[in-house]
Write a structure and sequence with these properties.
Keywords: Hydrolase. InterPro entries: AB_hydrolase_1 (IPR000073), AB_hydrolase_fold (IPR029058), AB_hydrolase_sf (IPR050266), Epox_hydrolase-like (IPR000639). By secondary structure, the protein is of the alpha/beta class. Helix 1 links the parallel strand 3 and strand 4.
Length: about 270
């Protein structure tokens, strides 16, 4: 496993890579960085060229407040390694990026693994009343400007699951979540992102093979998006990992990795 830093306008993209063969690019969630994929890297065969990088505002990636595009940054990563097309593995916001990229550059995406994926242009789903305490606590933390409180609330929401007991997931996993998310919470705001067109109404044109994975304890709106993707993507297979929340690969790699390996083995 080797670290890299790729120059981009206004900064550099930091990440890790290993192996040779089928290119697979891992795109992290909005509460994490590339380290959420370390257990997958440890489990992958050497015939997979695995790449994971921190997007702007996350991890060790550096960026000034300049105009940028997540799609362009991903293209720069692929070009840096001489990759024509890759399998994209994206969680949450990383999943949304994978879908947007497949729409913009279909020839560069061989397939997708979408984990608790977000979706640009998705409607605002009605959330159950039971989620109100978590949502209200997050609002209070933002109003107070208290990143430590917000980090704890977001750990409850995204790591434990918003309808589960706070602290359900503990130990090293929770500490790493706090570390990854705090970097993002303290990062300077980047206000000049070029946002791609919404993908919600274009899913039928995303024809690459897709493996959809979601945790049964995930946020209800993410579960709704998972269902939309299952219904609308023409070449998708859907899996629910019971007893996990928004980051099933991070929380239970022992359950997640076999599904990933089986999908990648089909190439």
């Amino acid at each position: 496993m080797a670290a890299f830093d790729i120059p981009v306008d206004g900064g550099s993209l930091h990440g890790i890579e290993q192996g040779n063969g089928l290119p697979v690019v891992f795109l992290h969630a909005g509460v994490c960085d590339h380290r959420m994929w370390l257990s997958q890297f440890e489990a992958l065969d050497e015939n997979i060229h695995a790449i994971a990088y921190d997007r702007r505002g996350f991890g060790k990636t550096q960026s000034e407040n300049v105009e940028f595009s997540e799609l362009d940054d991903l293209s720069i990563v692929l070009d840096h390694f001489g990759i024509r097309a890759a399998v994209l593995v994206g969680c949450s916001m990383g999943g949304a990026l994978a879908i947007d990229y497949a729409l913009a550059y279909p020839d560069r995406v061989a397939g997708m693994v979408l984990v608790g994926s977000a979706l640009t242009g998705a409607p605002d789903f009605e959330l159950p009343e039971e989620m109100s305490p978590v949502l209200q606590a997050a609002d209070v933390a933002r109003e107070m400007g208290d990143p430590d409180m917000l980090n704890s609330v977001q750990a409850h929401h995204w790591l434990d699951g918003p309808l589960q007991q706070s602290g359900r997931v503990g130990g090293e996993i929770r500490q790493l979540f706090y570390d990854m998310n705090m970097i993002a919470l303290r990062a300077p705001e980047l206000e000049k992102e070029i946002v791609p067109p919404p993908a919600h109404d274009k899913l039928s044109s995303v024809t690459q093979p897709a493996l959809l994975i979601c945790g049964s304890f995930d946020s209800p709106d993410i579960l709704e998006i998972h269902q939309v993707l299952e219904d609308e993507l023409p070449n998708a297979v859907s899996i629910m990992i019971e007893g996990t929340a928004h980051l099933p690969n991070f929380e239970r790699p022992d359950l997640f990795n076999p599904f990933l390996s089986q999908f990648l083995g089909s190439y």
